[in-house]
Amino acid sequence: MKETKAPRVNALHRGLQILELLAGPKKRWSTSEISRKLKIPKSSASYLLHTLQLRGYVRREEGGAYRMSMKMLALANLGLHGIEVREVALPILRRLVEETGITGHLAVQDGGEAVYIERVPSPGFIQVDTWVGRRMPLHSSGSGKVLLAYLEARLTDAILDGPELVRSTPKTIVSPARLRQELRRIRASGFAIDDQENTPGVRCAAAPIFNRSGEVAAVLSVTGPLQQLADERLMRVAEKVKERAHEVTLLLGGSRQSVPRRSA
User: Whole-prediction pTM value?
Assistant: First the structure.
């Protein structure tokens, strides 16, 4: 294959060459061997290996040889997991939007926030200002509260007992005691309600999708203005979201119950 004429970042190019080399049949390489094999200066190979080691992508064994770390495997599994969840959930998310007429989302946890990785807009004129890639706090959004409810207890405690929770709207729950009570209610009912806690005039109903290990793989949700999610309809829609999320769970080989955890 012909190389393109686009500019190349040599350090990145060489770093990737090293990773590809370490992933090959020979698992252990010294700095000198890598330098000779890839035809790069030994000093450059040493700097690159040191950086990759600091980032956790390679590890240095006794004797000075380098080999691939488990971080690369974890990264690959994370990518495959994200693709699997989106592909499995999207048809069901579309059906949920057709059934409710409300904009639907698929979200995951990333860096202590909920992030939309899929969005299916409402078929009507009423739309909400959301987008794929939007990041939201765990404590004030519907998807975020589901993720927070099923985190390991020590991680939940670190968030609730950490810096003061940010109030996004007058209805945001910022009391750790009240939020713990809300998280227990979410685990008991199997869904979360965001009642204008993240955005004024907007409600959300969200439910967890569990993977084979009993962990929350993603969150299915619908988000709309008050006229779409009025009091008399909100709980019916939440139950429908929970039902559709459970369908995705079963397709992923998971079950309705999450792994055991102590109450937050």
Answer: 0.68
